[in-house]
Amino acid sequence: MNGAKHISQEDLALYSMQALTPEEQTEVRDHLQGCAACKAALRDILAEDALLGLSVEQQALPAGAQQRFMAHIANTPQETTLGRSAKAEPAVVSAGRKPGSGLGWLGWVTAFAAIAVAVYFGYESQQLKQQLGKDQSDIAQLSAQADRAQELTDALTSPAAKQVTLTETKQPAQPVGHATYLPSKGALIFVASNLHPVKPEKTYELWLIPANGKAPIPAGLFRPDATGSASVVLPQLPEGVEAKAFGVTIEDAQGSNTPTLPIVMAGS
Ligand SMILES: [Zn+2]
To answer: Poorest-confidence range of 46-55, 61-70, 233-242?
Structure first.
């Protein structure tokens, strides 16, 4: 391990565990500063150690490195355990503290664990970033759909929206209404045009006539604007009611719970 030669894998492995003597650690560090090849080799060892550290099984060191490591531990003055334990101080703690002997076993394990944790969280963080990116694109998509739905609602209900009813040529325009209904959601959109005006104390009322023969359900009040157009968007309706038909009556301004005949518009 002199300056002229590259550092062996085994010494790099020991260096990564800080298991060399202080002099050797310094020598390796000095060499690494000027040698890209050995730096790359050390990086590989650290990466490999970190990945192995993620698995439960204990990593086996290269044979030579293991021997030298064990020899290094054996050569460590025995006061570490014997002397200190006589003073009733925990041996592990003093081993960790002993100057000049690297990190000792505890430090060795801790160092590996630290690398493993760092790599693991690096990976986790990458995964989270990817997930976050995906969520953001989902949100953007939902938001775009919501914007579209809002535009649709605005277009249907805005006083500025132009309502045009197409009829056969030369036929006078008749009152007409279009209901779009989704029973499972109780969602209804009703748009009408060419409506006759109603007296101020009166209103049009829309009715959902259930397929099960039960009483008509009030589905919203509406009054035509100056052009004879009106709409009812998503009135309060129970979910899951199949509709046989829709009808419109004229009621007192506050509306009614039962339709007052005649039905002025109907469709099924
Ligand atoms: Zn080198």
So the answer is: 61-70
**Which residues neighbour 12 within 8 Å (Cβ) at sequence distance 6 or greater?**
28, 38, 41, 42, 45
Q: How far is the CA of 6 from the centre of ligand 1 (A)?
A: 4
Domain boundaries, the chain: 9-124, 176-267
Q: What CATH number has the domain spanning 176-267?
A: 2.60.40
Hey, what amino acid is at 266?
A
CA 96 to centroid of ligand 1, rounded, Å: 30
Q: How far is the CA of 38 from the centre of ligand 1 (A)?
A: 4
Nearest to 112, CA basis, from 72, 58, 157 = 58
In the predicted model, is pLDDT for residue 165 greater than 90?
Answer: no
**CA 28 – ligand 1 centroid, Å:** 9
Q: CB of 218 within 8 A of CB of 205? A: yes
Q: How far is the CA of 43 from the centre of ligand 1 (A)?
A: 13
Distance CA 30, CA 133 (A): 43
